């Protein structure tokens, strides 16, 4: 059997290419204006470069003119750039996807001016909105003659001599009936503002320049004032207030990238999926979704990233992820970390004041990116119960801070923040711990809900970190994983001997002391084996009658379950009720129950009135402890109020 072997070339026919260009290459029709204006700007850049090389006349200042003719239903985009000869029209227009930019850059590769387009398909986007496209052009090279090219979107075209007095190109679009919206000046103005606002060439609509032209991110940071940065932010994000701080990006190796990123004020509505950073390519707007470029934890930042080296698809409407894109993401993350380090070092008080807005970026970034975690390891702040230190006055002739300079926060930790709150780093907190407790990190997640336990620790001089954001429920375990030598303990997890009075108790005739009696009393009154009763004498006059304690591991399991079920964590069924026998209410309860016979759990209400009252008081103490930690559901509050009112009435009847 003979083996068939043949080689050849795949034939591509223009009648198959045009429908693809018109319907599949570009995701939205409106980008035709971006492509045609970009082509005009390229033509102006080419004329300037060729004139510098002595190949053509220099010409007037470059501009793009957009004209609307409602009667003829035409939209014309004109430039005074380098123009084309008949041979160049045949080469660059008739050969689809043969980019004149690539050819031109090869000839003038020593010049630094950027050429926007590289694909050569941009011109053909005009057929998405036009039934016929005319091109009238005159080359700026000496001795050239004007030509007119015309095509109705089919493979056929016409090319003939024409009249044009000045070098440049007119692209005349005969709009389809369903695309007549582009005859509205307001529509064109919006598209220019969206896509071409920062092009360096004036784009004029009916004689009026409608683009800003200046792209601040292209300037050196030394050339920009603080007001320049703020004005750009206000222009891009109107009615959003002023930014907290910004990061100026600029590099030309191993890729070319400029940009300005802003930290916005926290609004609680950050977009962690799409983001609000705008992507530009040589000052031309490409996309407002750059999740492939910027790490997810930085997506809610705002601003501009401009790079001709980010790989885009042929329509410039989507990113193509590759190693270079990941490298750019790493560069952006490092520059952000460097800016945060600078602020933390040079302006620690300012850093603390805006910490709550910075915290989500830093904490989520640290948990998601190991390299970023190393860069921001010393930048994480916690609220603290310790008093803030005053910022030291700077020396009269103190040299500017450098990366090797001592951190000012070493001299003012805890740092004063907003609303009188003090902040500290983990290292700063540990430096104030005693030698025997330098591995235990006390923290509080809810100052109101954990007020009783928090007051106990503070009364004994303990410093407590305030980790009271939703992110901290994940960040604290992550910190524990990174610092295996440390033990993170929530204030209501357990109490140590420093919070307890070490006093002896006398046993009665049955051999029971007051703690045992109270334990039996509460166990009988609650009749709930899931609640472990502990009785202690707590220090301090402000110590509550009872506390709910949640052993650390048990509580974390409960919190994790709530997170997986996307609900707020509640009071676990299994918990500890710590009764403070020194509290007057508990001491009175013990006296009240002295004449009552304690029934076994589940024995009902067969005891004496004193026993019934003591049981109700014990349950009331338990309800108060639950109420303090949010352990009473909304539908249980009405019953609690009724029981409380009834109990107070009975106590008044007895003169108690």
Description:
It is a single chain. By secondary structure, this protein is of the alpha+beta class. The chain is 34% helix and 17% strand. It contains 18 helices and 22 strands. The protein has an eight-stranded mixed sheet, with helices on one face. The chain has a six-stranded mixed sheet with strand order 15-16-14-18-17-19. Helix 14 packs across helix 17 (609-628), helix 16 runs antiparallel to helix 17 and helix 17 runs antiparallel to helix 18. The termini are far apart.
How many strand elements?
Answer: 22
Q: Could you name the CATH topology of the largest domain?
A: Heat Shock Protein 90
Indicate the CATH class of the largest domain: Alpha Beta
Instruction: Please state the average pLDDT score.
Output: 82
The percentage helix is: 25-40%
- In one word, what is the shape? elongated
Q: Give the CATH H-level superfamily of the largest domain.
A: Histidine kinase-like ATPase, C-terminal domain
Structural class: alpha+beta
Largest sheet: 8 strands, mixed
Q: What number of domains?
A: 4
Q: Indicate the CATH architecture of the largest domain.
A: 2-Layer Sandwich
């Amino acid at each position: 059997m003979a083996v068939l072997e043949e080689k050849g070339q795949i034939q591509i026919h223009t009648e198959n290419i045009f429908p693809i260009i018109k319907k599949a290459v570009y995701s939205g029709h409106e980008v035709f204006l971006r492509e045609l204006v970009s082509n005009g700007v390229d033509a102006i850049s080419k004329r300037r470069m060729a004139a510098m090389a002595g190949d053509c006349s220099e010409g007037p200042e470059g501009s793009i003119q957009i004209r609307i003719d409602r009667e003829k239903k035409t939209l014309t985009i004109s430039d005074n750039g380098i123009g084309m000869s008949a041979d160049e029209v045949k080469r660059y227009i008739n050969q689809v996807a043969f980019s004149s930019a690539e050819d031109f850059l090869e000839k003038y590769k020593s010049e630094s001016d950027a050429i926007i387009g590289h694909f050569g398909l941009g011109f053909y986007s005009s057929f998405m909105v036009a039934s016929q496209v005319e091109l009238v052009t005159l080359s700026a090279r000496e001795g050239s003659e004007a030509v007119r090219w015309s095509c109705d979107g089919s493979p056929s075209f016409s090319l003939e001599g024409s009249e044009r007095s000045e070098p440049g190109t007119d692209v005349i679009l005969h709009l389809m009936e369903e695309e007549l919206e582009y005859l509205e000046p307001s529509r064109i103005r919006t598209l220019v503002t969206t896509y071409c606002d920062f092009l360096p060439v004036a784009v004029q609509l009916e004689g009026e320049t409608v683009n800003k032209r200046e792209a601040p991110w292209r300037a050196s940071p030394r050339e920009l004032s603080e007001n320049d940065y703020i004005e750009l932010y206000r222009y891009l994000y109107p009615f959003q207030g002023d930014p907290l701080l910004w990061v100026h990006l600029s590099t030309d190796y191993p890729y070319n990238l400029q940009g300005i990123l802003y930290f916005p004020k926290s609004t609680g509505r950050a977009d962690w999926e799409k983001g609000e950073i705008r992507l530009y390519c040589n000052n031309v707007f490409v996309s407002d979704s750059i999740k492939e470029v910027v790490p997810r934890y930085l997506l809610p930042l705002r601003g501009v990233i401009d790079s001709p080296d980010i790989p885009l698809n042929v329509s410039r409407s989507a990113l193509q992820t590759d190693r270079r894109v990941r490298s750019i993401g790493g560069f952006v993350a490092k520059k952000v970390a460097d800016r945060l380090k600078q602020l933390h070092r040079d302006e620690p008080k300012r850093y603390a004041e805006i910490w709550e807005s910075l915290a989500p970026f830093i904490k989520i970034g640290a948990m998601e990116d190991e390299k970023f975690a190393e860069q921001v390891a010393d930048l994480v702040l916690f609220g603290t119960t310790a008093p803030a230190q005053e910022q030291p006055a700077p020396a009269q002739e103190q040299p500017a801070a450098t990366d090797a300079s001592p951190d000012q926060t070493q001299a003012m930790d805890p740092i004063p923040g907003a609303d009188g709150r003090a902040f500290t780093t983990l290292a700063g907190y540990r430096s104030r711990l005693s030698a025997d407790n330098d591995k235990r990190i006390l923290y509080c997640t809810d100052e109101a809900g954990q007020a009783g336990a928090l007051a106990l620790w503070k009364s004994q001089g303990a410093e407590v970190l305030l980790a009271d954001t939703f992110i901290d429920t994940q960040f604290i375990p992550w910190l524990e994983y990174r610092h295996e030598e440390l033990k993170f303990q929530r204030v209501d997890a357990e109490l140590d001997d420093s919070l307890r009075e070490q006093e002896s108790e006398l046993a009665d005739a049955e051999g029971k002391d007051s703690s045992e009696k109270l334990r039996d009393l509460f166990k009988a009154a609650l009749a709930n084996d899931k609640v472990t009763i502990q009785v202690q004498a707590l220090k301090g006059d402000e110590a509550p009658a009872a506390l709910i304690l949640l052993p650390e591991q048990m509580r974390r399991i409960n919190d994790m379950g709530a997170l997986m079920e996307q609900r707020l964590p509640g009071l676990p069924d299994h918990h500890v009720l710590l009764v403070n026998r020194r509290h007057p209410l508990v001491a009175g309860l013990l006296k009240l129950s002295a004449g009552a016979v304690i029934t076994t759990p589940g024995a009902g209400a067969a005891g004496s009135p004193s026993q019934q009252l003591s049981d109700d008081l014990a349950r009331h103490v338990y309800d108060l402890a639950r109420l303090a930690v949010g352990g009473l559901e909304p539908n249980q509050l009405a019953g609690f109020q009724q029981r409380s009112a009834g109990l107070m009435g009975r106590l008044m009847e007895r003169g108690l």
